[in-house]
Design goal:
Layout: E1 5-7, H1 13-18, E2 31-34, E3 39-45, E4 52-59, E5 75-77, H2 88-93, E6 95-100, E7 102-109, E8 112-120, E9 126-133, E10 142-149, E11 160-162, H3 170-174, H4 181-187, E12 196-200
Parallel strand pairs: 4-10, 5-10
Antiparallel strand pairs: 1-2, 1-7, 3-4, 6-9, 7-8, 8-12, 9-10, 10-11
């Protein structure tokens, strides 16, 4: 799954190049422990003809047509996101990217959960595939991060991981003209598993209130 991540480099260069918008920019601050139920930086097209923008959306997905008591998932499984009634409309028309430097997972060791930080070996920005939807409340549109079965070294920590897309998949993922599952699969691929590494970090990351502390991602 993906329930906590970090985005501190604020580097959108790969995305800017992919969508041919060299001035793509967002006035955001570094965050080292981003929890659900907060505003996060999301790259999307607000409508089919709009340019890609970096907007502040709510990490918690609940479509406007859903009941107020409906679930607000933070993740959507890659295996079912295109066919689920809850997610399919957004998968077709409202795909987005969540830039991140890495994410956290917890591994049970001797009865205690030890946090690990997972990131790219080359420290380039990860672009996590997501979907967004207009909500039926006063919050901005809501987002869910798509997850897939863990690959490579990520399997040592958790059985699932966020779907991080390769740089050449960014533009087609955001292209509203691709609406069918097979067509989208044909033009996108995930980051090579060999590019993902992880290390243990302090249990201070367990407290979601502190997201400005750069030491949270330091190896123990």
């Amino acid at each position: 799954m993906c329930g906590r991540f970090a985005f501190h480099s604020l580097d959108f260069s790969a995305l800017a190049e992919a969508v041919h918008q060299p001035d793509l920019f967002a006035d955001v601050e570094p965050r080292y422990n981003v929890p659900p139920g907060t505003l996060i930086s999301v790259a999307r097209r607000a409508d089919d003809d709009a340019p890609v923008t970096i907007d502040r959306l709510w990490w918690g997905y609940r479509p406007h047509w859903a009941d107020a008591k409906a679930p607000q998932p933070i993740n959507a499984k890659a295996e079912t996101v295109a066919t689920s009634k809850y997610f399919a409309p957004a998968f077709q028309r409202h795909r987005c990217l969540i830039p991140a430097d890495g994410w956290y997972e917890w591994l049970l060791v001797d009865g205690r959960k030890q946090p690990h930080y997972l990131t790219r070996t080359d420290r380039q920005t990860l672009y996590l595939a997501g979907i967004w939807t207009e909500r039926g409340d006063d919050l901005p549109p809501g987002v869910a991060i798509i997850t897939e079965p863990a690959r490579g070294s990520a399997r040592e920590v958790h059985d699932r991981m966020p779907l991080a897309l390769s740089d050449d998949s960014l533009e087609p993922w955001l292209d509203p003209h691709f609406t069918e599952r097979d067509a989208i699969r044909g033009v996108t691929r995930h980051v090579d598993a060999s590019l993902i590494e992880h290390w243990t970090v302090s249990t201070a990351v367990n407290k979601p209130g502190d997201d400005r502390n750069a030491a949270l991602i330091n190896p123990l």
